[in-house]
Amino acid sequence: MLVRKAPQIRASEITDERLYFNRREFLGRASIAAAAVAAPWLSPSGTSAGFTDAQALEFSTGSPFSTREPRNSFEDVTSYNNFYEFGIEKGDPKRYAVGLKTRPWTVALEGHIAKPGNYHLEDVLKPHALEERVYRLRCVEAWSMVVPWIGFPLASLIGRVEPTSQAKFVEFTTLYRPSEMPGQRRDVLQWPYVEGLRMDEALHPLTILAVGLYGKTLLNQNGAPLRLVVPWKYGFKSIKSIVKIRFVESEPATSWSASGPREYGFYANVNPDVDHPRWSQARERRIGEFFKHKTLPFNGYHDQVAGLYAGMDLRKFF
Amino acid sequence: MTTARSLRRLVKPVAFVAAVAPLTGLAFRGVGGELGANPIEVITHETGIWALRFLLITLAITPLRQLSGWRSLIGFRRMLGLFAFLCASLHFCTYLVLDQFFDFASIIEDIAKRTYIAAGFAAFVLLVPLAATSTAAMIRSLGGRRWRILHRLIYVSAVSGVAHYLWLVKADTLRPLAYGMILATLLGFRAWHALSPQAKGIVSRNPSAANRRIRALRSSAEPET
Q1: Which of A286, B83, B90, B146 has the maximal Cβ count within 10 Å?
Q2: ipTM of predicted assembly, 2 dp
């Protein structure tokens, strides 16, 4: 396979931010899609014993944010995972995540917002139309994949909960349940797993909350039932199996950054010029290919997101 | 049939087959396409961990022999050491060919800048003279004393190998530390044995005990007919 450059997204194709926050259009789209979106989570076919079978989702395709690069197979995406809650080997999540019960599932929306509370997953998802986003995923370990996620912009959810001016950062927390997440029985990382974004990163149209991939609901090993996807950052920022979203005033203490502050920064933007202290980030192995790719600044999303970091020293804020 | 010959004829082939199993297993999984989404990573990890395991097994021979009085164990040491070298060579070749594809600029940068790569490279390079001087002719031409001194490089190689493993993991240091503990025990035994006069006392010098063990080994290793 030849190394090739991703098609650039023209500025004209990017949805204007005002359009994104146009409440009327948002509600219009939402009402049409609501029933279809919520259906898989409301349907009685999921048993109390677990929810491991992916169910078909309804979603729109053709997002201008989607890459046209070849996608990694469903098998690759669902068998090669970093999800330390289930073990440190790449095959562990697939092997051990089957025991995780994702129903019922509640998400706590907390902090500096007008409507804090514990919400059923169905209620969190109901107003949002789902769309496919085919994104590059670059792991901090220097491998990458192309994944067709199904989700909705995090910005739409943030718009609904009405953050106050004190909300400067968003902090996400993964489920902590050692009985079903065997990796949490040892302190490999600080549990529960915590990640965070600056507010403008969270509101960026590329940032999505994903509920599925390859047209179906997420499997447990991919972070079911709700996960973050931030494609210009290293994979560990894209936190899985989210149970809490908290709007805070100061930068959250995130799990990997706490584990190795010199190695994993809060920003963790994909950057070929800033090496991990122990290995190079200049190149990456696309799973399924032999020759390595050159790693692109912001994982190839430079034109869309570089403006967020204007004037920042990205070597310092790595 | 002497015990030494029976050992050569019966036990060593069994040990050889056992020692070659991890590599043949890996090869079969590779041919069958069962190495998962990132086969190069699996090959790298498997050859690396088995190099380290064989190094530790090789280093366990002398303490085991001294504790058990089972002198014939020495007959396995060279073979096990060469398996360590084989796995380390395959590990290095995987890095050179499959991972870096002869990108020497990148390899040199890796060795110079990455402590864990430098440690791994040192662990491998230090094994080269040991493998090269493993033949009976080389032992004769070097002379026993000089040969023994040269082969103490295995201690440095093993320490570098464990450091390589410890420094490459992202967060979970449990396994590399376990290998480190085993290595520390094996090297600690040698230090204790060399320094303490009491240590000599527990080492069995009783040839009849050794012979009993060899007889037991021979009977257990005899093929069933």
Answers
A1: B83
A2: 0.79
